[in-house]
Amino acid sequence: MERVRITSADVAARAGVSQSAVSRVFTPGASASARTIEKVRKAAAELGYRPNVLARAMVSGKSRIIGLVVAYLDNQFYPLALERLSNALQAEGYHILIFTAPNSTDGIDGVMQDLMDYQVDGIITASVSISSTLADRAEAAGIPVVLFNRGQGDAALSSVTSANVDGGRKVAEFLLAGGHERIAHIAGWQNSSTGRDRQAGFLAGLAEAGAEPFALFDGMYNRDVAMGCTRELISGAEIPDAIFVGNDHMAFAVIDALREAGLVPGQDISIVGYDDVPLAAWAAFDLTTIRQPVNRMVNATVSTMLAQIEQPDTAPQQIEIEGELILRSSARIPEGWKT
Amino acid sequence: MERVRITSADVAARAGVSQSAVSRVFTPGASASARTIEKVRKAAAELGYRPNVLARAMVSGKSRIIGLVVAYLDNQFYPLALERLSNALQAEGYHILIFTAPNSTDGIDGVMQDLMDYQVDGIITASVSISSTLADRAEAAGIPVVLFNRGQGDAALSSVTSANVDGGRKVAEFLLAGGHERIAHIAGWQNSSTGRDRQAGFLAGLAEAGAEPFALFDGMYNRDVAMGCTRELISGAEIPDAIFVGNDHMAFAVIDALREAGLVPGQDISIVGYDDVPLAAWAAFDLTTIRQPVNRMVNATVSTMLAQIEQPDTAPQQIEIEGELILRSSARIPEGWKT
DNA sequence: CTGAAAGCGCTTACAG
DNA sequence: CTGAAAGCGCTTACAG
Hints:
Two copies of one chain form a homodimer.
Chain A: H1 8-15, H2 19-26, H3 34-47, H4 53-60, E1 65-70, H5 77-91, E2 95-100, H6 105-117, E3 122-126, H7 132-140, E4 145-148, E5 158-162, H8 164-177, E6 183-187, H9 193-208, E7 215-218, H10 223-233, E8 242-245, H11 248-260, E9 270-275, H12 278-281, E10 288-291, H13 294-310, E11 318-321, E12 325-326
Parallel strand pairs in A: 1-2, 1-3, 3-4, 4-5, 5-11, 6-7, 6-8, 8-9, 9-10
Antiparallel strand pairs in A: 10-12
Chain A binds a DNA duplex (16 and 16 nucleotides) through residues 5, 7-9, 17-21, 23-24, 26-27, 30-33, 36, 51-61.
């Protein structure tokens, strides 16, 4: 099983032209006469020639590879985002080199280094923050970085998130309007911007109405942790009449735990999530939640990334996309609530 | 924002050695004196030098990139497999270039070509078949291909699947033993080997007991299709007392449709799925199902892939991994059923 | 062990 | 438009 590589020189020999002529025929933008193009295409087809992308990358300095760092693949939001990102990038002639993120920041730095060794044209991190050392290094290397679904107070980094503070506030207003009086929050991981922002908006919304949370937990974006919090919440003498959960993935755990205790979401306790992953619409959960518009987030990510690749002096952008509250049966709907 | 690349020549100049010496220090297996190693490492650290993986790939002919073609990312089995594959490959110093598969075979061939242009060392396709033209081309190029969770009657291709025929048969035996008399099957996509094999085993199992399916549908591995089939199944005068569903992803849809009609899975109708994705264990579904052991499938995939990369004359393998029936509440358990 | 040199497969000024 | 040549950043025989 010998690897027989067909090179542009082979095609050139067969077509009776120079190697550069072959290269020009396969380089978008370069020019060649109709006659040459025809001879080269014919020879290439006969030989089954295809340009070596790696060689092209070496000389052009553009690999057309985007590095993607992902985590939380058990949260349906991310596979979905991955699929959309991949499709959008493929359409632009880029491809994704994927790295699964270890849990520590150290680990992520290592992974980012590996990525840069592959001479990627850009890096997208999904649900992952990076150290400022690494941000600096990427900047020095001229590799644009876009944080997807995570913000970081660093103007040198682009980021795309939904309007998390605003979303948290919307939930507070919605639950208050529904007449809930004991509203708990199982927050997203407090070491992540999304977890903190949603909580901040939520608490602000309560405070503006003179209310306070019934209880506050860090659910760590983890299913088991969220279940544990829920069991604790409903084991006391007084239990909450509503729980705002930091993302849908944890909200499903909350609902499972509630039912296990014989409580009915939407009747006994209102549950609101965040994300609106496809599962949220399934009858088994029918979860009221804030929608994070994946498509719009993906499009923003891709366009800011490409802008920075193609025009290296483009400034990084911090993009926030508004999310809407999706009403379903897991939470009581206030009388006359505007859709 | 100029891209300043630091090369081995820069390091050599600063360390006062030749460029080849620098290369040797960074090439596993190559030898250099302790003195040289020290000087080079020091200079490299000061300059922030890292070898260009693409250049290395060009000369060595090994990119250490594995192409992965995926589809069905909404079926939790695949994101999980992707994560495990990525981790296992990262541990071996390989990385994944990911391509999302279009739905047509033509489209997939195009994608495979793109992959080969990147000089990948191997290709893994998850839940996707490839044309024989492409299989030939990959073989000619010396690029090993492993089909993950899909078989194809082609000895030149490696494949890793669970024992699908056997799994289907187990389900038939289980449901029969439970005294079910009207057993329907919403099969996996009949253009896929997994869909066909599970169905074949299931029908064989019924036939051996002199039974026949109550009804047979192709669910296409699609949620909406599966819901449609279910509604049709339960709208008649006589309804099934059990449904074997070709994978968990569709089984969740079946359960949703059943509940919508006021039927209780496990009481009114027994439901059995295939895969045992994490969701199947959630209280909301508690689905009886055949487990596809992701870890073992991933390990088999990685080891057969690496074997073929490292020893090009290694023969392709067709690996089948046995799956166990996981009992939960969605299906009636026969008296005295051996676990 | 070490350096000079060739070469991996391309693109891209540079002449013509 | 076209070809000869340099060069992208490495690895790896080849001498010494």
